[in-house]
Amino acid sequence: MEGYIWLIPVLPLAAFVITLLFGKWWIKEHAHWLPILAMAGSFGLSLAAFVQIRGAEEPVVVELWRWFSVGSFQVPLGMQVDQLSSVMLLVVSGVGLVIFIYSKGYMHGDTGYYRFYAYMSLFAFSMLMLVLANNYLLLYFGWEAVGLCSYYLIGYYYHKPEAAAAGKKAFIVNRVGDFGFGLGVMLVFVTFGTLDYLKVFELAEAGAVAETTLIGITLLLFMGAMGKSAQFPLHVWLPDAMEGPTPVSALIHAATMVTAGVYMVARSAVLFASAPGVLLVVGGIGTFTAIFAAVIGICQKDIKRVLAYSTVSQLGYMFMALGVGAWAIAIFHLVTHAFFKALLFLGAGSVIHALGGEQNMDKMGGLRKRIPATYYTLVAGALALSGIFPFAGFWSKDDILGAVWRDGKYLLWAVGLVAAFITAFYTFRMIFLTFFGKSRLDEDTEHHVHESPWSMLVPLIVLAVASTLGGFLGLPGKLGLIQHFLEPVFAPADHILGLHEYSLAASDYVLMVVSVIVAMLGIVLAWYMYVRRVDLPLKVGARLQPAYRVVYNKFYVDEFYAATFVRVAVDGSTWVWHRFDEAVIDGAAHGLARLWQVLGHAGRRLQTGKVQHYLLGIFVGLFVIVTVVVFR
Amino acid sequence: MKAADLIAVIPELVLLVAACAVLLAEAFRKEREASSLRGRPRRVAVALALAGTLGSVVASLALVPGEARVTFNATFVLDEWGIFFNVLFGVAAALTVLLSPRYLQAHDRHLGEYYALLLFTLIGMDLLAGARDFLVFYVALELMAISSYLLAAFFRYRLRSNESSLKYFLTGAFASAVLLYGISLLYGQTGATDYWTIGRILGSEGAAPAVLLSVFLVGVGLAFKVSAAPFHMWTPDVYQGAPTPITAFFSVGPKAAAFSVIIAAFIFGFGGVAKEWSVFFIVLGIATMLVGNVVALVQTNVKRMLAYSSIAHAGYMLTGLAAVGWSRDVYPAMGVLVYLAAYTFMNLGAFGVLGYLKTEAPSSFDYSLGRLAGLGRRSPWVGLLFSLFLISLTGIPGTAGFIGKFWVFSGVVLADLWWLAVIAVVLSAVAAYFYLRVIIYMFFREPEEQLVLDRPLRGGAAVALAVCAIATVVIGVLPARLWDAVTEVFATFLG
To answer: How far apart, in Å, are the Cα atoms of B216 and each of A625, B151, B178?
Structure first.
């Protein structure tokens, strides 16, 4: 495995470089081949790594090269493959491959076709580096690089002001989280004297570090995770990020990049387990985000925004799981979520494609018969997201709720259950609004409705199968393959928390039945409101006018930020700009520049061009030296 | 002298054979019309020169010794140290050979002697790096210097070239006299000329004025060669007047050779007064960085600006030398070696680009900044190459220049001379102004009159510039290999 690990990220990198250099003039509309082949190669190698790492006790660490080292500070480029990273590799390269293939159909004919594939390849490289890193510095590199790619791709339609603004927003909001993350990484180095995962965790396990320091480190790291994984209150960027092309939303803003925060917390499980207070914060914020975003999702009209809030909410579930030390289950939900959320986004993309770019669900309806393949696959994804037996989301979400229950966090469990009800409701609200009822399409789009090409349908079908069957990877209790597979990674953290393997009890079955019933109720309610009594939503909306308006406006979080942070930042910077920057800094800089110029002219005058003066210079230098030597 | 002694000088012998072959081949060349021939390609001479330089590199690498080869009564040593420098000089000379033919043809002055002289200079440099005796060192220095004077005057019908050579010769002779005086004082006190004996005897004497005087006289002689202020004043005139490929070579080759001999002689011979010469180099280093960077700011001639820039770079390396003496540790010297390697490629590249421009626009390109305006848009590849070298000279991370500065300055900091490192970093920030200004001119200024280049970048010059660019990036991104090599050099260097 040591021999080929480096190829996994390098293949997409090569695809990026070649596509970017030659795309515009030479490759043009064939730009998809190279990235798709590169992704296929990465996926194959990831599979091989997965097979080889199965059951291994120790991670495989490969140090490729060392950039430089000063004293104890080293900048190595090392890769680490263990069970956790191999699962992530498979998700990133597998889902990535499917989405790359889908994009061939979806992006076809776009003017920036090669640019799209180049950035997507760069993203794949960065994300693979992120999960392969064996130290926090390289993780940080990957972390920032995926953020950069996200920025490029959100603003892909850069001529649209909303897209440009959304890219900027994503970048700035992430800066807030990354500020904490960067500090956290520095604190790790100051505390442990190394950034290497294995060494850091070893020291933390040995209890070499005070708990207060660990609390500081984990809080800072979690701040980064909140930014990247869009947790309240840093969730605001993700819905706006939907301005990017739909495959981007599927790959970056649903399946992979936004889960980097979950991955990072799981990777640092030992640190978080040693700071139980912070775990409570993680679980609390996750749970709150889960229900908060789900509520907003009810009132969205844009099909992609519904899915965006759903992603925020599902990420909240993952943090809920992490908060009770159910690391493996969080990763399991990450995997199933990658399947069904990618499916939902691609399906939504297929709908949008069929309607020539329409995203407003008020202008859809009755599409069931007209784009059947899209319909059936999308329903599979919706069932998985709602948590209906036996679809993938059922197993992972139920595992999470079960773990929370076992941990005795009944309040979190109850909130999670309510969120599950809302999830089922808004998911099927979306399905019913899109595919059922009377057609509310515009005249011209009415005629152009067409099923998507095969390059788009095949990925949908693949993901639909994965969303249907993927849950059997993680059956609860001792049956769980993925839990068992990940055990070597999380054993130390579990040991610190005193968690043991558990057997299924009667209560677990009761919980499962309860959660399925709750989800079914949500679907039934959605059916009643959006298929049976189509007049009802408006009435309910009118009755609950104030509440509806608050939710519809996303709890005014954006407005709040605009009135406070943005305002303060802009006004403050303006003040600093005039009073400090222009006066002090610029003044000093210009003064210094003038000083150097004067010095330069003076020095230039010494250079007369006459040899006798040069020799005199040498002589004066000598004379001074001799004088100093003799008379010192 | 035994025949086995010659093994250690095989690289130099290869060069000698090649140089003589070039001269012979030129002598037997059929002259049809003497004047018109000067614009012709000289394939044989170029090929022989290339074979010679690369042959010496290969021979050096093949000679990687298990132990140091000490020869000629311990006056000359070929060890990892010598091999490192033989390779560095050989590569620099080979790149110069590649850069030269079209330039010389464009100036109607393509003669075989040029390559022979270059090879003789190279022999002197190789001998300098391996010398462990002041006499060998002096003879090698003069071999290098006299060949350099001739090369500087190679365009002898041009006033600038003559001026360059004459100034180089006069100031060089003066510096040699100072150096010789120092060496004679050393001999007077110790009765020896080899580094080790001198080191042993001086080490027991301490910092007596006579000792310091001789050490500093030698120091001044060498400071002249690396163009340290206030002994630098010849540099801008000589660099500006000499043929551009030769300037490129001067700025990296003889300078690096002088650095190699400073490190060896001062560590082995003058280790006893390390603190004292450390102060000497600190003062010189600050003065050199100051003069180089500050005066470069106001230059409008890019070739002359690069001459001042090469003075400034010598200043950075001098701080590394100062740190060696201050901490009595070779760690900063390792940084200096890395710096020399990085500097060789980026500086050769920068001058090489100027040489190419002069070749293709001999009459309209006068090296002024204004003539470069708009170049980046007309010839993007050339613009990008030049930008890369300038960025590296500035010391931006990801390029060789950063790695060199990083290791030298970290050595300075670890020697507890952090304030010196601060001065050096501040002055290298000043340097960003005049390097980046060139890039701004190339890409963001509208030209008054478009610079018309006869031909795109092709042939030997293209190969040489590509090698420089690749080396600049590779050293910047993957410096570990170079660092390992330098570590190995110093593992055997101290014996």
So the answer is: 8, 29, 10
- pLDDT tens track for A275-296: 888 889 999 999 999 988 888 8
d(C-alpha B428, C-alpha B408), whole Å:
13
Residue B301, strand partner residues: B368
Token digits of residue A136: 């926090």
Cα B467 from chain centroid (whole Å): 17
How many interchain CB pairs under 8 A, A with B?
Answer: 82
3-state secondary structure of B70: strand
| CA A272 – CA A265 distance, rounded (Å) | 7
pTM over 0.80: no
Considering only CB atoms, B209 lies closest to which of A597, A601, A629, namely A629
- A63 forms bridges with which residues in the sheet? A78
- Pick from A154, A182, A139, A356: which is nearest to A241 by CA? A154
- Min Cα distance A629 → chain B (Å) is 6
Give B43's pLDDT tier (boundaries 50, 70, 90).
confident
Residues 36-95 of chain A with CB under 8 A from chain B are: 65-68, 70-71
- The reply to whether B237 touches chain A by the CB within 8 Å rule is yes
For residues A524 and A451, what is the distance between their CA atoms, to the nearest angstrom? 28
B216 touches chain A (CB under 8 A): yes
Q: What is the C-alpha separation between A294 and A317, in angstroms, rounded?
A: 11
Q: Return the structure tokens found at B317.
A: 């390396």
Chain B positions in Cβ-Cβ contact with residue A609 (cut-off 8 Å): 237
How many residues belong to chain B? 495
- Cβ(A285)–Cβ(A226) below 8 Å: yes
Cβ distance of B170 and A611 shorter than 8 Å = yes
How far are the Cα atoms of A176, A259, A628, B160 from residue A265, in angstroms, in the given order? 18, 10, 64, 68
Contact between B367 and B304 (Cβ < 8 Å): yes
B220, B52, B49, B57: which is closest to B151 by C-alpha? Answer: B49
- Cis preceding linkage at A233, omega within 30: yes
Tokens for A625?
């030296």
Cβ pair B66, B435 in contact under 8 A: no
Taking the CB of residue B315, how many other CB atoms lie within 10 A of it? Answer: 28
* Dist. CA A393–CA A411, nearest whole Å: 22
- B104-161: pLDDT as tens digits: 988 888 888 899 999 999 999 999 999 999 999 999 999 999 999 999 999 888 888 8
Instruction: Answer for the pair B383, B377: CB distance below 8 angstroms, yes or no.
Output: yes
Give phi and psi for A62, each to the nearest 5: -120, 120
Backbone angles phi, psi at B390, to 5 degrees: -70, -40
Query: For A401, left (φ over 0), alpha (ψ -120 to 50), or beta?
Result: alpha
Per-position DSSP letters for B45-68, written without gaps between them: HHHHHHHHHHHHHHHHHHT--SS-
Q: B246, B152 in Cβ contact below 8 A?
A: yes
Phi first, then psi, for residue A167 (nearest 5°) are -60, -45
